[in-house]
Amino acid sequence: MVIESSWINGLIGGILIGVSATILLAFNGRIAGISGMINGVLEFSSGGSWRILFLGGMLMGGFIYEYLLPLPNTPSGDFNLFLLILGGFLVGFGTRMGNGCTSGHGVCGLGRLSVRSLTAVVSFLASGMITVFIMKHIY
Q1: For every residue of 73-110, which 3-state class applies, written as one string?
Q2: Both 11 and 67 in a single domain?
Q3: Do 108 and 21 touch, CB atoms closer than 8 A?
Q4: Is 96 in the same domain as 56?
């Protein structure tokens, strides 16, 4: 079955993200912040097998979505590799500076009514809007 509507895909994806974050918090007492998970795996923290499983599940889900489901292809544009790499480093820097990423603050922090997470999410969104404006209208 091919689902053509993007809002349905977004709804299903959002539900899956919320359910996985809730299950991780309920059964493991951990926040589903991806930057913290990656950091824990890279630092070889004790008890990190759950991090590897969670991250592996995310990668497997992306693989299944892209290669095994008969979904319409997403358009691939002509991207500037330097800007993509620079953007990746800036996101990583901002994640460290903000003490968490969009998944940790946006999904889990807002769900727990954290003021710190609300501040972070507003900053993420404002930065994204400014970046899109610059890239569409100035650059």
Answers
A1: CCCCCCCCHHHHHHHHHHHHHHHHHCCCCHHHHHHHHH
A2: yes
A3: yes
A4: no
pLDDT of 17-37, one tens digit each?
889 888 988 988 888 888 888
For residues 111 and 105, is the Cβ–Cβ distance under 8 A? no
Is pLDDT above 90 for 115?
A: yes
Q: Kindly state whether residues 117 and 93 are assigned to the same domain.
A: yes
- How many domains does the chain divide into? 2
| 80: exposed, middle or buried (Cβ count in 10 Å: 0-12, 13-18, 19+) | exposed
Global pTM value? 0.66
Contacts of 72 (CB under 8 A, 6+ apart): 2, 4
Q: Which of 76, 97, 116 is the last residue of a domain?
A: 76
Q: Does residue 63 share a domain with residue 14?
A: yes
Does residue 45 sit in the same domain as residue 87?
Answer: no
The first and second tokens of residue 7, run together, are 């809002």
